[in-house]
Amino acid sequence: MIDFPDDIFTEPADVDPDTLANLGPLRRLAGVWEGRKGVDLNPKAEGPERREFLERIEMQPIDPQANGPQLLYGLRYHVHIVASDEDTTFHDQVGYWLWEPATGIIMQTLAIPRGQVALASGRALPDGSGLKVRAERGGPGYGICSAEFLEWAFRTDSYQLDIGFNAEGGWSYVSTTMLQVRGRAAPFRHVDINTLTKVGEPRPNPSARIAAGEALARAHGFVSVGGAA
After folding, report:
1. With contact defined as beta carbons under 8 Å apart, do 106 and 121 qualify?
2. CATH code at position 55
3. Alpha helices for 8-134 (secondary structure H)
4. Helix (H) or strand (E) segment spanning residue 13
5. Residues of the domain holding 167
6. What percent of the residues of the chain are helix, what percent strand, and what percent coil, each to the nearest 5?
7. 150-184: per-residue pLDDT in tens?
């Protein structure tokens, strides 16, 4: 149990605006990534189906966030996946990776356009070789929330993401989701794996760019507000 302070309103003072310098173990995820050897194992009526996919992930730093005294640094991310044998989007996902320096806790929020969201938590591995986050359905804090049909037909009981960093600067992941498929007694282990290579560097977050002299509106991405030029 975390020992929370009695003062829940006062925000930290003198916060460093440079998110990239304060991401802890998440720093190695910042940037734009692509992977061409993804594998997905998902449930179908006739049994497990194996699909290969291409993946692009963009992770950009956001400004520091405060919940009263709690300070978080993070990355906004977008995952876009296309199956190797299809033209349409196979999977799309958005969310945030968050790092709390005071506790070492890592959080991942995720949302997919099928009526499902989750908030997972975890920590970096002790040897610095990767990190792990996990969420379980029905938990009092971190958890999984699904729309009625998914809850009825493909209930998600747990989600775990294991990330390993490699010596070349890239990273690999194993995503494991335990599903209770309607009409089947045994849970289904839905697995996705891939290895990502960096194809683009991250952009500094807005407050870091402002601290470096960039105009406020431009740093925040406005194009029709005065001062953006």
Report:
1. yes
2. 2.40.128.20
3. none
4. none
5. 19-202
6. 10, 55, 35
7. 999 999 999 999 999 999 999 999 999 999 999 99
